[in-house]
Amino acid sequence: MTALTKAIDKVLIYATWNDKLLVFSEPENPDMPLQVPGGTVDEGEAIQAAAYREFHEETGILKTSGMRSLESVTYEYIEPTHTETHRRHCFHLPLDGKFSDQ
Q1: Which pTM was predicted?
Q2: Rounded distance, CA 24 to CA 13, Å?
Q3: Taking a C-beta distance cutoff of 8 angstroms, is the pair 83, 77 a contact?
Q4: pLDDT at residue 2 above 90?
Q5: How many angstroms separate the Cα of 49 from the Cα of each of 24, 38, 59, 61, 95?
Q6: Which end of the chain lies in a sparser environment, N or C, as judged by fewer CB atoms within 10 Å?
Q7: Measured between alpha carbons, how far is residue 28 from residues 12, 31, 34, 61 in Å?
């Protein structure tokens, strides 16, 4: 098994509204557990800009401020043919306004 040398940056956004955490399921993949918005940082993209972009892409909610960095964690992600180094950047985004509990 080979290891890739360049770390792949990922973002996770823990968005809260009142006392609730925003999670979603994937209708195309019902076996996947609930998850928070997030994804891969594009080449040359700033980490926090990627967090705002991914949050908007996955929720349809456009936010441009209020996101706070929580923690970054580096770990090895093992694929069948290789190992990747991932760096997860976690953010908190408090939401305001009116939302459905659904």
Answers
A1: 0.85
A2: 12
A3: yes
A4: no
A5: 21, 12, 15, 14, 17
A6: C
A7: 20, 9, 13, 21
Q: Which residue in this structure is represented by tokens 């509990």?
A: 101
Long-range (24+ apart) CB contacts under 8 A made by 76-83 are 76/3, 77/8, 78/1, 81/1, 81/2, 82/1, 82/2, 82/3, 82/4, 83/1, 83/2, 83/3, 83/4
Closest to 94 (Cα-Cα) out of 56, 54, 63, 51:
63
Q: 70: closest CA among 14, 24, 8, 21?
A: 14
Could you give phi then psi for residue 85, rounded to 5 degrees?
A: -90, 120
Domains, the chain, ranges and CATH? Answer: 2-94 (3.90.79.10)
CA distances from 67 to 9, 12, 42 (A): 17, 11, 19
